[in-house]
Amino acid sequence: xxxxxxKQALALLCISLPIAVHASSAATAASPSWLTQxxxxxxxxxxxxxxxxxxxxxxxGQKKALYxxxxxxxxxxxxxxxxxxxxxxxxxxxxxxxEQRSTQADLQLAQAKQVFKYLIQEKTAQALQAxxxxxxxxxxxxxxxxxxxxxxxxLNLVAKRQQAGDVSQVDAELTFLSLSKTLNTTAQAQVQLAxxxxxxxxxxxxxxxxxxxxxxxxxxxxSYKTNPLTSEQWLNQxxxxxxxxxxxxxxxxxxxxxxxxxxxxxTFGINAGKTDGDNALGLSFSMPLNVRNNFSSEARAANxxxxxxxxxxxxxxxxxxFVIQAATESVLAYxxxxxxxxxxxxxxxxxxxxxxxxxxQSGDISTTxxxxxxxxxxxGLLAGIELQSQFxxxxxxxxxxxxxxxxxxxxxxxx
Length: 415
Hints:
The chain is an alpha+beta fold. It has a single domain (9-68, 96-263, 296-414), classed as Outer membrane efflux proteins (OEP) (Up-down Bundle). Helices cover 66% and strands 9% of the residues. The chain has eleven helices and four strands. It has helices at 9-13, 32-40, 43-62, 97-164, 169-203, 231-237, 239-261, 296-345, 348-362, 367-401, 405-410, and strands at 70-78, 81-91, 267-275, 278-286. A four-stranded antiparallel β-sheet has the order 1-2-3-4, with no helix packed on it. A hairpin with a 2-residue loop joins strand 1 and strand 2 (81-91). Helix 4 (97-164) runs antiparallel to helix 7 (239-261) and helix 9 runs antiparallel to helix 10. The longest helix has 68 residues, at 97-164. It is rod-shaped and about 135 Å long.
């Protein structure tokens, strides 16, 4: 089967494995093993692990012999004689159906492992996204609190200047209104922060504020020219694609098993006993006759199902290819605009705040203009916080799209 590669948008990003994740320099930085332990505590992960163990047990059973020997006995009384026989019958796997069952069992186990692997990556990505959301909510809450304090201080200054006759009653009322709006904004930010923290603890039960998992810049994905993975390899290796491919192979195995089911297996037996007081030894043979039903319809249906599953595999490949493309374009877009925002705001935050305050105090701008400018400054900072968070989240989405979350976490040990 030919796997069509993703368009060369990935080449623009220039981010291939190995992927480096720079750990926080804090003494309390959490290790990848700690994060893995937390993920393994998730009930969904525990359930998936038990399901995988169940498949492993079924695999052991499917690899065993198809037919057990059968004990056969017979007793009859003829006149004064007691006639009896005892023997063993054994059905022979003439068409080697056991081998096909064993192959299918291996495929089912491999599929269960891929399902578990993807669930681990998915839960890890959810935990990392929750951490990004928490840091985002934390910065927004801090900015809202700072603005509230700033407006509180401004309100006191306006009251003093109003007494001195420098500002009007209207200016004072506008400041009151701005402060009242900010109180609501601060409350909402605190609520969002609490919700974000609860989500992190839900996914990482032992997490505290002192645990540093992600650095401030988030996961750093870097390009290495040595042995880069191509987009086609990423596509082929992705757990969702592997699951679909294994399902196709399982359906093919089902079709082969259904075909073998149309073929009958003979049963041989040997028995010994007494008949009319004489020792008796006998052999037996039986063979099912597929006369009334040769099971060809079931075999045809299984083959048609395999063809349908193959089409589903192509659909999964096509969908995942575009998922990778979309994730790549998102990373590029957020990277471009966040870096542009950094260039625009570099050093301006403090300068703008100081300049506005000086101009207001000197009377160069009115209180209305000052409040409007402060709101614009806050909006600009909030936009930067959101851009930074979206950039971090897009990198996590990209790693999940190419199925390499675990590789990123392993590289924490190297930083």
